[in-house]
Amino acid sequence: MLRVMSANLNGIRSAANKGFLDYLARSAADIVCVQELKAQEQDMSADMKNPHGMHGIWHCADKRGYSGVAIYSRRAPDAVQIGLGLPEFDAEGRFLRADFGDLSVISLYLPSGSSSDERQNVKYAFLDAFFPLLEDLRETGRKVLVCGDWNIAHQNIDLKNWKGNLKNSGFLPEERAWLSRVLESGWVDVWRSLYPDVPGYTWWSNRGQAYAKDVGWRIDYHMATPELARTAQAASIYKDEKFSDHAPLLVDYSCSI
Question: Which DSSP symbol is given to 246?
Answer without folding.
Answer: B
